[in-house]
Specification:
635 residues, Immunoglobulin-like, Rossmann fold, 8-stranded mixed beta sheet, 38 strands
């Protein structure tokens, strides 16, 4: 099982890194479909045509779509033919080829009917244009209401046509109900009100249309460029012959006849859009007149190819720049991401020595295994199967830092040796509240103890921390003074940092005590070598020896028998051991031999010295001709 786990982990990393979708798609950029399916004569509206005695007219569309396409939502292009609102039909020359061209590129395309006819006056002409606008809106409503059946994405509807058809497209994108020309409400020759913009043909889709995504304007015009407002923000690509005498390239009367209202052609439309900051392109057909593509077939390729590229700008995902660390340490993980878009897929690739260990579609986590300049790239494929522009991000992988150090100590002084690798900066913390940024600092501690030393090493990108604890201490100091009172020796050592005070009294007796002072009772007079040994936890030892002479001068006699003794604990509670207790005299002497108090103990085997101050004393107990003296230390 243990040997299987590394294999499983390696498999998961490889599987995660390689489980990427294919984001390469030429849809909308190239004719990726070999054939087109055409459904003709789909009725979308019934409307009252021009003429007082005319009967309601059914309107139809032809629907082009790529054969074998499985995409559930596709952008839609609606084509409205030209002919001055007087002639034309939905399958007139060049229209089917235009529709098939874009259907092979992955679009759904509809070529539509609209009502024709007008009187030869400006008001009737405007009414004809308004009816064409209503019919185009009816087609848009029909296809939007049936978007599931025809697999249309109503967020991406594009309008196009030629001449009169683009008058309608421009009007539908930039005119509102408040902009309705007065003649559409009726005038002398045509008194009937044409109704609102969405009040003709059908009542589908809530009698409204989705916002149009863009227009392919082929020699169209608009009544007033002031109708174009920044709030509309509808991109336009325009094609127009600069020698057009029927629809002015700049400004004038259609057909050069004042009977028609003056209009603004593609050039002022382009200027207005540019001034407002709305995406647009003007492709003037220099030296050509009206409908030049009918006799100059090569212009069809020009119009279609430029239009294809213009629309693709609007279809492709606008992938955000990759975010992530621009510098990273070797052996470390880094996350790179782009802003996610619903329905999009993302394909990531790496250059250099790195492994994608986690792929969350719009973000990846990479483990970099070598140093150098690395690149991370991502391509987005949106739900329309339009591929985005390849995004590239450069990461510099630098060597990782390893913090380490050694040390040599001399009592409270520590010499630190920095063994860090690939580091430039150092931060030391010595555990006593002090710090240093030196490479190899020397630290002097004020007192002994155990201290954690922390080193943080970095190279302005990577960092590492190394911590170790050690004990420092000064060597203890051995030295003492003493006082002798008859056989009683009082020894005073200075407090120092020792594990214990080891006393050797020269008479064969010794004592190892924690307190720095001690009392020893000699059994007989004489000269003795007294030695004090102190040693700290680090093994540093010091020894001090003095020669003392014990004589009996006066004061305290001592005696000792096995059956007559006593013992006092540190709290001052004392117990006696003797054969008979007819009265025992207890005498207490300080370290100078001066008697400080005495008491008589009768009919009990205990007494208390708890009232004594903390310190060293000699206590003598006397009963008859028997006496015993002992040192007592009160803590």
């Amino acid at each position: 099982m243990k040997s299987f786990l590394p294999l499983l982990f390696s498999f998961l990393i490889v599987s995660t890194a390689s489980a990427q979708v294919n984001c390469n798609s030429l849809r909308y950029q190239q004719p990726v479909f070999d054939s087109v399916t055409l459904t003709e004569g789909i009725k979308f509206a019934t409307a009252t045509p021009y003429g007082l005695l005319a009967q309601p007219q059914d309107l139809f569309l032809d629907f082009y779509e790529p054969t074998g396409d499985t995409l559930s939502k596709r952008p839609l292009i609606i084509f409205q033919f030209g002919g001055g609102f007087a002639i034309g039909w939905r399958s007139e020359p060049v229209i089917p080829d235009f529709c098939r061209f874009f259907a092979r590129h992955g679009y759904a395309v509809a070529s539509i009917d609209y009502r024709l006819g007008f009187n030869i006056d400006s008001q009737s002409t405007v009414r004809a244009m308004y009816r064409a606008m209503q019919d185009e809106r009816a087609a848009i409503r029909f296809l939007s209401a049936n978007a599931t059946q025809y697999r249309i994405d109503t967020n991406f509807i594009f309008l196009t046509g030629t001449s009169a058809g683009c008058f309608s497209a421009l009007g539908n994108c930039f005119m509102s109900e408040a902009d309705r020309p007065a003649s559409t409400y009726g005038y002398t020759l045509e008194p009937n009100d044409l109704g609102c913009m969405d009040c003709s043909g059908n009542t589908l889709f809530g009698q409204r249309i989705p916002k149009i995504k863009a227009i392919i304007n082929q020699w169209g015009a608009i009544l007033d460029t002031n109708l174009i407002d920044l709030a509309d923000n509808i991109p336009i690509i325009s094609f127009h012959g600069d020698q057009d005498l029927l629809v002015p390239y700049e400004y004038g009367f259609p057909f050069q006849l004042p009977v028609f209202p003056p209009v603004y052609g593609s050039k002022p439309i382009h200027e207005r859009l540019t001034n407002l900051g709305i995406l647009n392109e003007l492709r003037p057909l220099v030296g050509y007149g009206h409908e030049p593509e009918l006799l100059n077939a090569h212009l069809n390729d020009t119009i279609r190819n430029y239009s294809r590229d213009f629309l693709f700008q609007l279809l492709k995902p606008n992938t955000s720049a990759i975010s992530g660390p621009s510098v990273i340490c070797k052996g470390k993980q880094a996350t790179y991401s782009v802003s996610p878009t619903a329905g999009s897929k993302y394909c990531w690739q790496l250059s250099g020595s790195g492994t994608i260990i986690q792929n969350n579609s719009h973000s990846i986590t990479v483990l970099w295994s070598d140093t150098g300049t690395m690149q991370v790239t991502v391509k987005e494929l949106n739900y329309l199967q339009a591929e985005g522009t390849l995004q590239t991000f450069t990461t510099q992988v630098v060597p990782d830092v390893k913090a380490n150090f050694g040390f040599v100590q001399n009592e409270l002084e520590v010499l630190l040796s920095n063994w860090s690798v690939n580091a430039e900066n150092y931060y030391w913390s010595f555990g006593d509240g002090t710090i240093s940024t030196d490479t190899n600092p020397i630290k002097n501690y004020a007192t002994g103890g155990t201290y954690p030393i922390t080193l943080i090493a970095d190279n302005n990108v990577c960092s590492d921390t190394f911590v170790t604890s050690f004990t420092v201490d000064s060597c203890p100091v051995a030295g003492f003074t003493y006082q002798l009172t008859n056989f009683n020796g009082f020894f005073y050592a200075q407090p120092t940092n020792t594990l214990a005070y080891a006393w050797y009294f020269g008479d064969g007796d010794s004592a190892k005590v924690m307190f720095h002072n001690v009392v020893h009772i000699y059994k007989q007079a004489g000269t003795y070598e007294v030695t004090l040994k102190v040693k700290n936890a680090l093994g540093c030892e010091e020894v001090y020896t003095q020669t003392i002479t014990v004589t009996v001068v006066s004061g305290i006699a001592s005696g000792n028998e096995e059956k007559f003794t006593f013992h006092c604990d540190q709290a001052g509670n004392c117990r006696l051991r003797f054969e008979e207790n007819e009265g025992i005299l207890v005498e207490v002497f300080d370290v100078s031999g001066k008697k400080t108090e005495e008491l008589l103990v009768e009919h009990t085997n205990s007494f208390s010295l708890q009232h004594l101050a903390i310190g060293n004393y000699i206590v003598r107990c006397t009963a008859g001709n028997k006496a015993v003296a002992k040192p007592v230390t009160r803590y």
